[in-house]
């Protein structure tokens, strides 16, 4: 899997564009900037946007090519990111210091997905927010992006289970039109979550 992402992110073009995800952009309008984490952030479009709004941003991905492009994008927008090359398993989530964790199109095998989601819950401060957008299982019938294994796509029921300890302020399935670079383009079936950690 690491080799796949290194190859994709080694291209000169930004695989998913340089503009932030539309759901993230809309949500951040309502949040006071704080300390944010972007796991599996790829080429940095969302992390850079948050940094432009005044967030202190950490990000990680296991692709070093992605990190290089993210830091180049941050430099272009004159913002700073703390960006590590790390895996889900190796990143130190246990610090419990994030006001926001943003998961955008992070598609993993089920066991690793559950591990990541549990780690994100641990890493949020009380009052912290979690945002997520990813492909619904019905995305299999469409050609606008995402993995072609149903187990790596999402259902609302799986997400409700994974994030049962958070207050789910929004959980929905959406038909959207993606315009996020060459690999996310066209009509898509996604799920969206905004959740809050209270304890």
Key attributes of the depicted protein:
alpha/beta; Rossmann fold; 6 helices; 30% strand; 29% helix; 7 strands; globular; 199 residues
Concise summary:
With 199 residues, the chain is of the alpha/beta class.
Commentary on this structure:
- By secondary structure, this protein is an alpha/beta fold.
- The protein has a single domain (2-196), classed as 3-Layer(aba) Sandwich (Rossmann fold).
- Helices cover 29% and strands 30% of the residues.
- The chain has helices at 2-9, 22-28, 45-52, 64-76, 110-123, 156-162; strands at 35-38, 56-61, 82-85, 98-104, 124-135, 167-180, 184-196.
- Strands 3-2-1-4-5-7-6 form a seven-stranded mixed beta sheet.
- Helix 1 (2-9) runs parallel beside helix 4.
- The longest helix is centred in the middle third of the chain and has 14 residues, at 110-123.
- Residues 42-128 form the Methyltransferase domain.
- This is Methyltransferase domain-containing protein.
- It holds the Pfam family Methyltransf_25.
The total tally of domains equals 1
User: Largest beta sheet: what is the strand line-up?
Assistant: 3-2-1-4-5-7-6
Number of helical stretches of at least 4 residues: 6
Rough outline:
globular
How do the helices and strands follow one another from N- to C-terminus? Answer: HHEHEHEEHEHEE
Largest sheet: 7 strands, mixed
Mean pLDDT: 95
């Amino acid at each position: 899997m690491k080799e796949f992402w290194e190859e994709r992110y080694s291209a000169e073009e930004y695989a998913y564009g340089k503009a932030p995800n539309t759901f993230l952009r809309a949500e951040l309008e309502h949040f006071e900037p704080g300390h944010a984490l972007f796991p599996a952030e790829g080429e940095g479009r969302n992390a850079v946007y948050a940094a432009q709004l005044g967030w202190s941003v950490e990000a990680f991905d296991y692709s070093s090519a992605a990190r290089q492009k993210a830091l180049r994008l941050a430099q272009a927008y004159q913002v700073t990111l703390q960006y590590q090359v790390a895996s889900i398993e190796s990143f130190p989530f246990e610090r419990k210091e994030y006001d926001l964790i943003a998961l955008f199109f992070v598609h993993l095998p089920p066991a690793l997905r559950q591990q990541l989601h549990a780690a994100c819950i641990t890493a949020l401060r009380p009052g912290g927010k979690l945002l997520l957008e990813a492909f619904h299982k019905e995305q299999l019938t469409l050609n606008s992006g995402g993995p072609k294994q149903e187990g790596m796509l999402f259902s609302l029921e799986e997400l409700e289970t994974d994030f049962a300890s958070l207050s789910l302020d929004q959980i929905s399935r959406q038909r959207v039109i993606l315009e996020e670079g060459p690999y996310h383009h066209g009509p898509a079936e996604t799920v969206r979550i905004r959740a809050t950690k209270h304890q």
